[in-house]
Design goal:
The structure is a single chain. This protein is of the alpha/beta class. Helix content is 37%, strand content 13%. It has one domain: Uracil-DNA glycosylase-like domain (Uracil-DNA Glycosylase, subunit E, 3-Layer(aba) Sandwich), CATH 3.40.470. α3 crosses α7. The longest helix has 18 residues. The chain is globular, with a radius of gyration of 16 Å. 45% of the residues are buried.
């Protein structure tokens, strides 16, 4: 909490004239979505600035570009929370709701925020496919589903790009996070991300 508020006060030079959100971030999207996208945490100068997860940073450019190509978003970019972006059949949120130092949330932050994720999932029974962006999100999703009474398979499903796991009628899909560390190095490409969302659409269509 202290870090997100410190960033909102000091700001980055490029955004010095903007008022930062500087508070916890809710999820957003289609409340009847069948595809639930779970990220890591707000970026200090992205969501923590704009007030919407993945909005105003390069990771968001990759994510919303992929959602647009998959027909799940009405535009490929998002720069502010009032820029007209609308999601259809998709909902986006994060495992941790406050921007952490160095984009590295602690397990304690995950645990503190877990009830919010549990509540979102409980309120969205149509969300049968959970796309987990990174291993941290994968672990948070499993913990939330277990807290909701889900039977976690044994051995416990392990995260990998393209991995999948079935938990009480929902399917987890793993994808590398669209962070600059992954996209700049080619660990995650546009086609790899597109394949994940095409698979998510196929699985969600089969669940109807």
């Amino acid at each position: 909490m202290a870090w997100r508020e410190q960033v909102a006060q000091t700001r980055r030079a490029a955004f010095a004239d903007q008022a930062y959100w500087g508070r916890p971030l809710p999820g957003f999207g289609d409340p009847d979505a069948q595809i639930f996208v779970l990220g890591l945490a707000p970026a200090a100068h992205g969501g923590n600035r704009t007030g919407r997860i993945f909005t105003g940073d390069r990771s968001g450019d990759w994510l919303f570009g992929a959602l647009y190509r998959a027909g799940l978003a009405n535009q490929p970019q998002s720069i502010s929370r009032d820029d007209g972006l609308a999601l259809s059949g998709c909902y986006v949120t994060a495992a941790v709701r406050c921007a952490p130092p160095a984009n590295r949330p602690l397990p304690s932050e995950r645990d503190n925020c877990l009830p919010y994720l549990e509540r979102e999932l409980a309120l969205m029974p149509a969300a049968r496919v959970i796309v987990c962006l990174g291993g941290f999100a994968w672990d948070a999703a499993l913990r939330a589903l277990r807290a909701l009474g889900g039977a976690i398979p044994k051995p416990r499903p392990r995260f990998a790009h393209g991995a999948s796991a079935a938990v009480d009628g929902r399917t987890l899909l793993g994808s590398y996070h669209p962070s600059q560390q992954n996209t700049f190095t080619g660990r995650l490409t546009e086609s790899m991300l597109d394949e994940v969302f095409e698979r998510a659409k196929t699985l969600s269509a089969g669940a109807t």
